[in-house]
Amino acid sequence: MGTIEEAHNVRVIGKGNQIVVLAHGFGTDQSVWKHLVPHLVDEYRVILYDNMGAGTTNPEYYDFERYSTLEGFVYDLLAILEEFQVQSCIFVGHSLSSMVGVIASISHPQLFSKLILVSASPRFLNDGDYYGGLEQEDLSQLFEAIQSNYKAWCTGFAPLVVSGDMDSVAVQEFSRTLFNMRPDIALSMAQTIFQFDMRHILNFVTVPCHIIQSTKDLAVPLVVAEYLQQNLGGKSIVGVMPTEGHLPQLSSPDIVIPVLINHIRNDIAEPK
Questions:
Q1: Catalytic choice (8, 246, 252, 263)
Q2: Where are the alpha helices (DSSP H) in 52-149?
Q3: Is residue 168 part of a domain?
Q4: Known catalytic residue: 252?
């Protein structure tokens, strides 16, 4: 593998004493933050990177065993923070990366002043009294569709996840980054993400968490955001936005960007 910086296409831009790390979810790359970045660079130093497996990374670097659990992505994040000598950061993670940040913060809480968790879920599958939104049968069909005809699956999956029609800019953008992934890597990542269960570790989180959630999200029901707040060990707050879809920073930037900036700038208020 090349250097950490090259392997993950790490970019450090902006100015300021505080560091904001932006981490993307499945099927996207760092471009998913394109509407947010211009609002941060005058005030913060911003670190962007691509998760291994994104279409912008070298597929030869993708280790199927390493990324069969979220720990592989956690090690990558910690390596990037070490490489750039980050002592403390505000971490903004979307979907997959929100849980990556959660895990990293448990072992290295000093590296994170707060976590901003966008469209986050500790468990996508329904399980007893827990409602994650998906049944095992749904996942079996999803994995089979990825394997049988990846391009057709992408075409159907993108508008469902973004909650828009194929002509929308956000759906076209997500389709582009999804298509860029190698199909076998996309399947591997989907199996890792949609089957993980992080509920048992939430109580160990001590870093303040800002949970940002769309009112309607096919992948993450609103009750999951409430579950997170109730079960995270440290201080947490839920910000519900009048948006639809799993990638609101891409599909509804006019609503989402001010919300994200507000949570980046402001800490959780102490109860009166």
A1: 246
A2: 71-83, 96-107, 136-148
A3: no
A4: no
Residue 10, domain extent:
4-122+198-265
Structure-derived torsion over alpha carbons of residues 60, 189, 264, 114, reported in degrees to the nearest 10: -100
Question: For residue 271, what pLDDT is reported?
Answer: 54
pLDDT on residue 270: 66
- Candidate list 8, 94, 95, 121, residue with the active-site label: 95
Report if residue 151 sits inside a domain. no
Give the per-residue pLDDT at 164. Answer: 87
Query: What's the rounded mean pLDDT across residues 6-31?
Result: 96
Does residue 121 have an active-site annotation?
no
Catalytic, 246? Answer: yes
The one catalytic residue among 29, 50, 76, 217: 217
Residues 6+ apart with CB under 8 A from 38: none
Residue 137: both structure tokens together:
């049968």
pTM summary value = 0.96
The confidence score (pLDDT) of residue 165 equals: 84
* Residue 173 is assigned to a structural domain of this protein: no
Q: Which amino acid is at 265?
A: R
Whole-angstrom distance, CA of residue 176 vs CA of residue 158: 9
* Average pLDDT of span 86-109: 98
